[in-house]
Amino acid sequence: MTDIFEQGKKLPLIQEFYTIQGEGYHSGKAAYFIRIGGCDIGCRWCDTKISWNADIHPLASTDKIVNNAFNSEAKSIVVTGGEPFSYDLTYLSKKAKEKKLQTFIETSGAYPITGEWDWICVSPKKQKPPLPDLYDKADELKVIIYDTEDFNWAETVSEHVNMNCKLYLQPEWSKRDENTQKIVDYIMKSPKWNLSVQLHKYIQIP
Q: What CATH number labels 2-202?
């Protein structure tokens, strides 16, 4: 079992579902979401704290996960967590590519990239910042705004990404009423940024 797990042929699966992407650059597009358990970042405002402890989530066959995505009629998968790069995802991305699925991933950037990805969204966290080489590989930078200091953090990390990286500011859900307008005002003064809202939560879909 351990050998299979290390090869990425089984992963601690929290949930998998076909839905509409609700955040960032690909918001509004259909995708098959794969949420993997395990995260040691520990964001105080995390809305999926159930993902922190990988041991409470059953190991699922990576082949079956990919087949489920393929059979859903999805054209792309979005791997999220938890922190998905806590694991070797080479096997998962390889199998997805064999099925002609686009591969998207959402990561804090705190661990090395494994696998082949068409889109890498880095959502950096102050308590465990991204590895230096992750910035250059990011297609999208999505910074969560919980308090005013997060704007300074956003500017700091934006200095490290490549020139083609898409930049997003997203209000933390519990503070969306007070922070959304602040973000809008900020973007109007610094238009390199774009607004990301959690569309899926507004329209109440997974």
A: 3.20.20.70
Give the E-state strand segments of the chain in sequence order. Answer: 10-20, 30-36, 59-61, 76-80, 102-107, 119-122, 140-145, 166-171, 194-195
- Mean pLDDT in order along the chain per 10 residues (206 residues): 68 96 97 91 67 77 98 97 93 98 97 97 94 95 96 97 97 96 98 97 93
Backbone φ and ψ for 125, nearest 5 degrees, come out as -120, 135
- So where are the chain's domains? 2-202
CA distance linking residue 26 with residue 6, whole number of Å: 31
pLDDT at 93: 98
Composition of the chain by helix, strand, coil, percent to 5: 35, 25, 40
- Which residue from 203, 186, 204 is spatially nearest to 195, judged by alpha carbons? 186
